[in-house]
Every structure is written in C-alpha cells, then in structure tokens.
Amino acid sequence: MPPAVVLVTGVSRWLGGALAAELARDPAVERVIGVDTVPPSADLLRSLGRTEFVRADIRNPLIGKVISTAAVDTVVHMNISSTPAGSGGRGPMKELNVIGTMQLLAACQSAPSVRRLVLKSTSAVYGASPRDPAVFTETMQARRVPSGGFAKDSLDIEGYVRSFSRRRPDVGVAVLRFTNFIGPRIDSVLTGFLRMPVVPTALGYDARVQLLHEADALGVLTRATTGDFAGTVNAGGTGTLLLSQVIRRLGRLQLPVPSPALGSLGRFTRRFGFVDYSPEQMRFLNFGRVVDTTRLRTEFGYTPRYTTEAALADYAQTVSPVVPSDLIGELAAGAEELVSRAGSVAATVGATVHGRLRPAPAAPGLRAVRDA
Amino acid sequence: MPEARVIQLRPDDESHVPPAAEPSWDEQVVGGVEFLRRRLTGEYATDEFGFDPDLTDHVLLPLLRPLFRRWFRVETHGIENVPTSGGALVVANHSGTVPVDALMTTVALHDDHPAQRRFRLLGADLVFDLPVVGEFARKFGATLACSEDAERLLCGDELVGVFPEGFKGIGKPFRDRYTLQRFGRGGFVTAALRTGKPIVPCAIVGAEEIYPMVGNARTVARLLGLPYFPITPTFPALGPLGLVPLPSKWLIAFGEPIETASYGPAAAEDPMLVFNLTDQVRETIQQSIYQLLLQRSSVFS
Name one Pfam family in it (chain A) (predicted). Predict the structure, then answer.
C-alpha cells in the first residue's frame, strides 16, 4: 500500500529535496510535506512541485501539530547533520540531531495515523578502527564505539528509534545505513573533501572507501518510503576503492600528514570553513569502512545502478583535475614509444652483431608422424 | 665431425608453441612506464579487504623474491597438497621475531604453486594499527584475524593463511625455537568447520634463526606498546646492521589436507571436536618440523 501523506524532514538539503520531488511526482502519494528550519533554495523550490513546505524546527513541539493535523502516515527522517560547520558548531549540531529526533519520535508516537518511519542513518555507526572486520553486516556492532561527532549522534538516534519501535510495534521502521554519498549534485562531507586541490590524508594509512551514487541514494530512500521493508539495511555501491586511488582518479594531489598533525590541520581549515575533520572522520580516513550489501539486494530489493567506481567517475566529471590523467597518459605513451624505438634499434644492432658471430640455427624441419 | 643438433619432434596435430622468451629490456621498461601510468591515474582494482594485486605483483613480490631465492634459498615441499582452486585454510607455525615467514610462504605459494595461488594472510590488530605496516599489509592481501574475515575469504574461495601461535610464536625465545606454542583458542578450526573448507598444515623451518631472540626488553616493549622488544646478538648492538636477517636455509612443507566438510557446519559448536582438530593440526605441524630439521644438514646450508 503506497503512503498517502508523507512528511520529509531536512527537505532543504539536496537529498531531502530530491526525495520530496520524487514523491510529489508519484500520483499514488496524496500529499508530501517538507519540513526544514531553512527555506529551500529557489532552484530546489521549483523542483519540489506540489510539496508543501513547512518552516519548522523539529526540536519544537509544533512538529507534532503538523503530523496530527495532516494525518501523516509515513515519516522520513533525514534532518541529521553530519558536519558541525553546517549547523553552527558541535553543540547546536548535537542538539538538532539528538533532541530533534527525540521530539520527532515523541510526536510520531502520539500520532495514531503514523504507520511507517524511515530513518536515514549512516554506516558510521560501525565506527572505524584497526580491530574491525573488513566488511560489516547489519548484525555487527562497532568494535570500538564511536566517541563523538556524527557517528555518536547516529548511534544515539538509532537507539531512540529502536525504543520507539518497541513502544509502537504497529509502525514499520526502516533504518538505512548509507555509506558515503557521491555525485555531481549532492553536497556531502566527502564531495567537499575531494574538491580540495591538495587532499591531506593520514600518513601511513590508506582507507577503503565505499561510495553510493546520489541517484541510488534517492532510489533506496524512495523504495524505503513507498515499500514495506522493516528493519535495518546497509546501502552502498558494489566494490571499493582505496582513498589514494580515489584521489588519483580525480586528479588531485595527495598530501600525507602524520595523524596527530592532521587533527590540528583540520581545526585550522575548519576555521576557514573548508572541510572539517572531526576525530571520527579522521579515524575513517585512517581505516575506512566497507559494508555488506547482500540484504539491500535480496530482502530490501534494490540493486544500485552505479558501482563505487562508476559513481566516482560520474562525480569526476564535475571536478577539474589538478593533474589531468590525459597528460599522464600522453607522457607515458611518449616515453613508451621512445623506449620501444630505442629497443628496436638496439635489437637490430644486436641481431647484426650477434648474427655475424653466431648464425641462428635453422628452423626445425622434421615432423614426427603418429603411430597408425 | 658435424655438429650435433637436437630437433624436437612433435605430433602433427599439435600446434607449435614457442617457449616464452624473456622480455627484452625495452619491453620491461615499457611495462614499468605502463605500471607508473596506472599507479598515477589510479586505474587498478583493489578488493574490499584492501588487497592491491597490481602493487603486489609488480612491486612487493619482486622485492621479496631475492630474499626468497638467494638469501634464504627456500625449498618448498608438498605443494601438491595445496588445492589448485577453491578455499582452504593453511595453518603454519610462526617464528622469527619479525613475521618474515608469512611473507616467504606467500612467495612460495605464488611462485611454486602451478595455479600461482594468492595467499590471504590473517594478522593481529596491532599490524593494522601501525602506520605504513598496516597499509602495506592490507595491500599485500592481509586482513584482520577474526572469524568474520576468515569465513568471508574462505567462502570467496581464497587460500587463507593463519598463524595460530600469534605473538607467542614470533616472539618465542631462541631456546624454544622449534617448539610450537599454544594454538590460540582454536578459532581457525571453527572457521574451517563453518565453511567446510580443508585445513592444510604447513611447517616452516628456517625462520627461527633469522633473528635469534636471546632477550626481551620488556620495559621498552611496554613503552612502545609492542608485545615484545627483541634483543638479538646483533640488534640493537649493531644498530641498523642488526636488522639484516641471518641467511638461514629455509624449508617449507605443506602437509596433507585435513578435510572438514564431512563434519558439517554445526560441528563448529562442538568444543571437543574443535579441540581435537586443533591438537591434530598442531601435532602434524610439530612432527613435520622435526622431519624437516632432520632433512636440513645445517642451519646455513
């Protein structure tokens, strides 16, 4: 049964807006209500179609009124901030993430119309440490519980959502643990990080990176909203790349910095509003994280169209490389030609000299005939 | 007297295959340039464990080969006991202060096995915590020694290598060099039983003498967060010169595979069976070590 009234939080960001627009195009969905603290940009507003925008803070009890008066039956919670920069510091970020979710869940619990909840979570809940298994399945837990930042918030949020589903067993709860997003339009931590011409990484470590293309992220969210999957599922593209490989494929320059210095470099760059390196983001850059997506394909029923490699290639079209791969290719081709020319000259000279000294034996002319 | 010439006879219907010529120097340089281009543009594949076959084949294995062929003159026995395809768990003894034995076994299985098998090592978490070491361990095909990774690799039909002695093994004192230490908690047997893959016992002789560990500076080890800090006759007395391993003669022997599929995956929950199999593997390796020691006429020949 498709949802009748959908409430999407965090609609002013690209992914939330794209989901609302997608749902608004679906005639089976009666109403789409988008909620955010900031109004969407003019571009986004045009694409939203018949989505009704409510400027509200999910930390405010007002959200409960919106849910009950509109008789919302499906809530998609995407208003989780991954960077302190976007929400005015770590304090407000934590408040928005954790207190906001608690308020939203409280409102959902008291609204009998709600029968489905979709949470946009993250694979960061698995943490990143040298004690981790290489690939996480949904049943695994973090070996070293993330100590702070986005990962800790996400863990707390998942905890609240679990207790919500215990109190309201009639509500189908889908928790989507996404890997890092990438794509030409989405604005994620990783896209900002990789847009820098010189990318500082941890010296002596090379993280394994699994990416999910923005179109697939949207596809997974849409299916979770309109389908009936209940439970936790990892969402990521097929295949992995190493961080060094990602940087090279994008034609960026890699700057390995000793891990302790990377933290202070992160604080320095954050002051100028570039990219933030929270400690848990740093651990991710050291060790990386890969999730198993078997459940996504089988039980959930979605196969990502882009592999990690293809998603990165699509993103690469929008960044101009510092070191163009064509240039490297041309240089390599030039060098190869030069070498093979030198080689053939040397071979002719060598053959002449060699041939005079020791003539080559004649080709074997005799052939054995098999027994009749 | 006319010069005798050997003419190879071949049946009529068999097409003539010329023996593969050694690549000429210019082909080698072109290959090198092509490798550099791939590395700079990132156009190579890595797997979910961080294994980088391109780097392993073109840099890491060639670096280890002189050590394997010339320095330790490794002899491989019983390579036919390692299956040509499908998953298997190679269980070996561990010694030598630094895990060179794991690297040499990787070279042996790649170079001496007809199927050029890749050896996926399981390492302690400390390996992956260390900068540079952890990075290259993953690129070399290693991953964390935990049941999840072991089973995932075995199910992916990989040849998995495990050293159940762990740090107790490589950090064993020189006087105990040929004695196997306790074999962990039998986690490797559980992984093999759950996946139904055979266990191939492997005995390595020669690694014991490369860095004879006569002492252990416990205080320094604790300060550095290491399980032991070795003192050998040459290290740290001779400084960096003490890092050169002694050129002992190595023998690596693979024993007959121990089949586990017949027990069924439920057998992994039977601790008695797990203990018995662990002991069986340990005994087999210990016996094999004594046999290899008899074969080897002296430590350095």
Answer: Epimerase
